[in-house]
Amino acid sequence: MMSTLERLCHETDSQLRDLESRLSQYEQVGEDFVMNLEADIQDVSGKITATLQRLDILVDKEPFSRRQNSKLRVDQIRYDFQHLKSALRQLQTRRAQRLQEENQRRELLATDFSKLPNGGHTAIQIQDSELRHHSLMKNVNKSVDNLLDNGMEILNNLRVQGSSLKNIKSRVLDIGTKLGLSTTVMKMIERRGVQDQYFLYAGIVVSLLIMFALYWYFV
């Protein structure tokens, strides 16, 4: 024999299908019938809400072995109901927007422009496309100038760092000579200095390529 909880679950599933069917008609009915349809939807929603409250009470009374499965089933029903309520709100919002647009169009078509101030002349401010383009290019040029300035600053910093590395190299070689370091160690230090110089030049080239690419892209 079917328990009360199972019977209410079946009834609620049927009510959810009924609610989903009514929601599918919401955007199709005319204004003369939409109020009746909304009243039916609210009636079904109220019944489902009341049933869910009863189901919560019945789940707590279920034996421990069946309580978890019963709770999952009721939670799924509640989730489906919340999903349908959210869909209803979206449908109502879209319908209200459509009605507002239709009313605005009717008001615009019904407006007698000859009765407007200034002798019926309507001033429409249209921004010149060339002015917009000029303003955009001005902003782009300013951005490119800023990028070039930043690039020059980076290059200057790299030059300063290169000079510092040369000075450091000379000092290390002098110290190595005074300390009597081996020729192999001195050559390793010298090779490292050459490698650092290559890295410096590579960084300068990459920076220039990036600046030219940005200039070409924006201009």
Notable features of this structure?
single chain; mainly alpha; 219 residues
Note down, in words, how this protein is organized.
This protein has 219 residues and is an all-alpha fold. The chain has five helices and no strands. The protein has helices at 4-24, 31-60, 64-110, 129-179, 183-218. The radius of gyration is 39 Å and the shape is elongated.
Task: Describe the protein's topology.
Layout: H1 4-24, H2 31-60, H3 64-110, H4 129-179, H5 183-218
Helix pairs in contact: 1-2, 1-3, 2-3, 4-5
Give helix % range.
over 70%
Overall, the morphology is elongated
Gyration radius, in Å = 39 Å
Average pLDDT reading: 76
Give the class from helix and strand content and strand pairing. mainly alpha
Largest sheet: none
Q: In DSSP terms, counting alpha (H) and pi (I) runs of 4 or more, how many helices?
A: 5
Instruction: Give me the count of strands.
Output: 0
Quick recap:
This protein is mainly α.
